[in-house]
Amino acid sequence: MSLSPDANLPSAVGYDLPASLFAAMVRGVRHRCPRCGEGKLFRRWLKPVDTCSACSLDISGQRADDLPAYIGIFVTGHLLAPVIIALVTKWELGALALLAIIIPLAIVMLVALLQPSKGAVIGLQWWNGMHGFRKERLPEREGLQE
C-alpha cells in the first residue's frame, strides 16, 4: 500500500468530492456546486448555472422540477401546524386574524425554502448520477494491513 498521492484522486484535479449523500446535499443547500463545493450553483433565484465555474461540472441537465416546491410545502406545513394550534387554542384568535398571521408567514417560509431545497435536490441527483450527471465517488480506502 502506497501513501504517495495518486494523480487520479479528486484533490489532484483541484477539488474535493463529498464523502456522502448528505455532504453533497448540504453543498446544494448552501448554493454551491455538489461536486466541488466551490462554484456558485445558481445564477438567479431558481435558475442554476449551466456549468460550475470551479470544476466545470455540467449542471444544465438537472431536473429538479416540482420536488423543491413539495419539500417546501411539506416543511412549511409541519412547522406551521403547532403555531396554528397555539394561536387557535391559547390566544383564541378569530379566523380573519389567524389568516392575517399565517398566510404571510407561510408565503415567506415557502419562498425562503425553495432555493435551498432545489440545491439539495440537485445535490441528490448529482450523487446518484441522475439526469445526465455521472456518479463520482471518493476512492475506497483499503484498511491498514499488518
Written overview of the protein:
By secondary structure, the chain is mostly helical. It contains three helices and no strands. Helix 1 (21-29) packs across helix 3 (95-128) and helix 2 (67-89) packs antiparallel against helix 3 (95-128). It is elongated, with a radius of gyration of 21 Å. The chain starts with 20 loop residues before the first helix and ends in an 18-residue tail after the last helix. The model is unreliable at 1-11 (pLDDT under 50).
Short description:
The protein is mostly helical. It is built from 3 helices and no strands.
Features:
single chain; 146 residues; 45% helix; mainly alpha; disordered N terminus
Secondary-structure map with pairings?
Elements: H1 21-29, H2 67-89, H3 95-128
Helix pairs in contact: 1-3, 2-3
Order of helices and strands: HHH
Give the number of helices.
3
Helix-strand category? mainly alpha
**Largest sheet features:** none
**What is the alpha-carbon Rg in Å?**
21 Å
Strand content: under 5%
How widely separated are the two ends? Answer: 11 Å
What is the residue-mean pLDDT, rounded to a whole number?
87
Uncertain runs are: 1-11
Coarse shape: elongated
Helix percentage range: 40-55%
Quantity of strands, as a count:
0
